[in-house]
Design goal:
With about 130 residues, the chain is mainly alpha-helical. About 60% of the residues lie in helices and about 5% in strands. It is built from seven helices and two strands; from the N terminus they run ββααααααα.
C-alpha cells in the first residue's frame, strides 16, 4: 500500500481520497482476518486439529440453522448423538426433546443447561433464533 496522504486535516477529522480510504479499510480487514486465523491455528495446535474442528459446523449445517432448524438438532446430529441418547443425558423424555427440536415446545433454562453440558456447547449456541417482531 502506498503512503496515505490526507487531503485535509482538522483537530477532529481527516479527509482522505476514496482510494486511500478503501485501501486502508481493506488492510484493516486483512489484518483482522490474519489475526483470527492465527488464533484458530494456535487453538488447533493447543488441543489438536481433530478436537478443535469438532466444534466447527459444516456450511450445510449452518445453512440449515439459518433456515430455521433448531440448533439443538443441528448440534446433536453434528455430534452424531441419537435423540434418545441426548434425552437420556439431559434427563428428559425423547418425545419432549423432539417437541423442543421441532419448535413446538420452548424448553426450559434447566433443559438448555443440561443440553449444553451433554453437547459440550455454550448454552447460547443451542438457543433458537427469536422470531421477527
Amino acid at each position: 500500500m502506498n503512503a496515505i496522504v490526507p487531503i485535509q486535516m482538522t483537530e477532529d477529522t481527516v479527509t482522505l481520497r476514496r482510494i486511500d480510504f478503501d485501501a486502508m479499510t481493506t488492510a484493516i480487514e486483512d489484518a483482522r482476518d490474519t489475526a483470527f486465523l492465527d488464533q484458530v491455528r494456535a487453538h488447533e495446535d493447543e488441543v489438536g486439529v481433530v478436537a478443535a474442528r469438532a466444534d466447527y459446523l459444516a456450511i450445510e449445517l449452518v445453512e440449515r440453522m439459518v433456515a430455521g432448524e433448531h440448533p439443538v438438532q443441528i448440534w446433536r446430529e453434528h455430534r452424531q448423538i441419537s435423540r434418545s441418547d441426548l434425552a437420556l443425558a439431559a434427563g428428559v423424555s425423547r418425545s419432549y426433546l423432539a417437541e423442543v427440536e421441532a419448535g413446538r415446545k420452548p424448553g426450559s433454562v434447566v433443559l438448555f443447561q443440561r443440553l449444553a453440558v451433554a453437547l459440550a456447547r455454550p448454552i447460547e449456541d443451542l438457543l433458537p433464533a427469536l422470531p421477527d417482531a
